Amino acid sequence: MDFTKRTEPYALFSEWLEDAKESEPNDPNAVAVATVDADGLPNVRMVLLKGLDERGFVFYTNFEGTKGKEVLGAMKAAMCFHWKSRRRQVRVRGPVEIVSDEEATAYFNSRHPQSRRGAWASDQSRPLADRETLIERVQHFQEKYPDDDNIPRPPHWSGFRILPSEIEFWQDGDHRLHDRVVFTPDGQGGWATQRLYP
Ligand SMILES: Cc1cc2nc3c(=O)[nH]c(=O)nc-3n(C[C@H](O)[C@H](O)[C@H](O)COP(=O)(O)O)c2cc1C
Fold this sequence. Notes:
By secondary structure, the chain is an alpha+beta fold. The chain is built from 5 helices and 10 strands. α4 (113-121) packs across α5 (131-144).
């Protein structure tokens, strides 16, 4: 079916993500996340989408790093997926909420033990003298939390959920005559859609 005729964005997004899993060499869930700093200067970096339901789009990070502080400062963010193999783009923007402690802990516990220790070891986005310092810090948390099944989630490590005020789907067309459709909440629990010029 022509995606520009769809009336609900999450099923469409899930289908496009499944398509991407078949053709992207790695990280089909990779997505650029844009934030602004206190001066309104934009910032952008990749994360991995780790949660998706009808509330929104979830990623996990250190809340004391640059992106964590910028999201917490504005409580707004935007995302851009680009699946080159499919010639597709999806953009998401909106206010942000912090996932529940239960949700964050459940996701944290699903990560590799060394990634869990790494979350303790990394003062994300802050200056690091040399790689040895990082390795020593990982070793420190290896000794502190030797049991793979008992590594607590750091209090500064959690997830953000973008609650979309807009979700835009883009599919490449011949000679730059692309198809674009943007979904916005209709205020009654459903979605309004609008086709846009490419
Ligand atoms: C494909 C890819 C996925 C990434 N996923 C995450 C992620 O889910 N969470 C995260 O904190 N950093 C992730 N990173 C690292 C970030 O891009 C970034 O370097 C780091 O979070 C620090 O960003 P900040 O200084 O803006 O906070 C990823 C990097 C790449 C290239």
